[in-house]
Amino acid sequence: MNSEIQAYNDKQTEADKAICDLLATAIDSELTEAENKIWHAIPVWFIDGNPIVGYGRLKDSLRLLFWSGDTFEEEKLQKEGKFKAADIRYTSPDQINLDDLSRWIKKSREIQWDYKNIVKRKGQLERLK
Known about the structure:
The structure is a single chain. The chain has about 130 residues and is α+β, with helices and mostly antiparallel strands. The chain has one domain: Aspartate Aminotransferase, domain 1 (Alpha-Beta Complex). The chain contains three helices and six strands; from the N terminus they run ααββββββα. The protein has a six-stranded antiparallel beta sheet, with helices on one face. The longest helix is centred in the first third of the chain and has 17 residues, at about 15-30. The two termini are about 25 Å apart. InterPro entries: YdhG-like.
């Protein structure tokens, strides 16, 4: 695991650290080609400079965010914001369904919108894959 991401995880409460470690391990094992780093204060994985998936602490939960997740057609992922992102929120590692997580991570590779160039395109997203 990336040392910055491990340091982020280590700063969390015990329950949140367990969630973070589980998510990071699953994401790393599926997205082996992805670059990962702390971006806007949260762990994020990128493919070709495009943000794919990340997680971070909210007031009442830990959020797993897929930048293109709203187009995954997954009932458990909730639309987030005005673009194509969707998330799921956890308060315990027991809530994480590893089969769902694996499927979503695979979809994150297959279904991508071009967030990398969103500013250049003045807020317009284009489908990459």
